[in-house]
Specification:
Elements lengths: L5 E5 L14 H13 L4 E5 L12 H18 L5 E4 L3 H10 L3 E4 L9 H8 L3 E4 L17 H18 L5 E4 L8 H9 L2 H4 L14
Parallel strand pairs: 1-2, 2-3, 3-4, 4-5, 5-6
Length: 210
Amino acid sequence: MFPKIMGIVNVTPDSFSDGGQFESHQAAIEQALLLVEQGADLLDIGGESTRPGALPVPADQELERVIPVIEGIRRHDATIPISIDTSKAIVAHEAVTAGATMINDVTAGRHDAEMFHTAATCNVPLILMHMQGEPRTMQEAPTYGNVVDEVAAFLKGQADAARDAGVEEIYVDPGIGFGKSLEHNLALLRSLNEFTAIAPVVLGISRKRF
């Protein structure tokens, strides 16, 4: 299996890499279509920043940001896979209704107990990411006994729970930069085989600070 490239579009004012660049729906749609033209195999649309120090946003604001963008992409491209980056089941459900084909939950189901049920009933793949703490505090003092073992054990547990809830297609993300130091990130990158043994791996390393 060859790696696939995920194009990221953050419809937010405060994301780490592109915050504020694509706040308007039209700018976000144009950026998404440009990424497809440049070779992205799938798109990831997010309406809530998860950069270090970020604060949560309410579901209605998140929906207002992402739904018009997903619908706009679908008017131009009916086939490109679209992932909705959210930890809220209601946002995930509405995004799939609007045309998203995958859910990307950076909390791996910890934030919203309905997320696994939503992914199962919508019959879409689910990405589970590891994050120590929450965006507001995750980079203050990340600590592990053995980062590879702990992250792998967490992701396996969440993947098993999602499968038990009826989710058929699962991906895992070790969460580079999400509650990890430079040394933790490098250790995880050296041990990706530990994660491919659980499920196919999604790896977000582009433009990360480390």
